[in-house]
Specification:
single chain, 141 residues, alpha+beta
Length: 141
């Protein structure tokens, strides 16, 4: 068993995923070939069994590292907050969502009187406030 930091574990996972993605792309390209009857066929070097075994090995490595990382996050308690890393990650996600929601609410609290461009005659821009425009609409009853 090796001991690495969570950052190194994430880098290792990323490298295994990249290798797996490249292997799958190579398999997609090399698994079939075509040629005309007059051409000499070029048969790519492709072995289905070997490719599938390598994909399985990479998947197993990714699963084991992710599981170990998850176990570390579940068991490691921060002395400053008395929370596990997992709890802190969840709390950070919730705070991030609520801060985005605050920005939406801040936009809702803006003044309803805003300047917009309204064209009264063609090619004649004129500024009128939204409040006045709404008042004009209600006054036509």
């Amino acid at each position: 068993m090796i001991q690495i930091t969570p950052d190194a574990a994430n880098k290792l996972i990323r490298s295994y995923k990249d290798e797996r993605r490249l292997l799958m792309e190579k398999e997609r390209v090399d698994c079939t070939y075509s040629y005309l009857g007059t051409e000499q066929p070029y048969i790519p070097d492709y072995d289905f069994k070997q490719t599938q075994e390598r994909l399985e090995v990479l998947s197993d490595k990714i699963i084991k590292i992710k599981h170990a990382l998850n176990q570390f996050n579940m068991k490691t308690v921060s002395p400053a907050t008395d929370m596990t890393i997992d709890e802190m990650l969840v709390r950070m996600a919730i705070l991030s969502e609520s801060s985005r929601g605050w920005n939406v609410c801040a936009r809702c609290r803006r003044s309803p009187v805003v300047r917009i461009r309204v064209r009264v005659l063609p090619n004649t821009p004129r500024l009128i406030s939204r409040w006045k425009k709404q008042k004009l609409r209600t006054g036509k009853r």
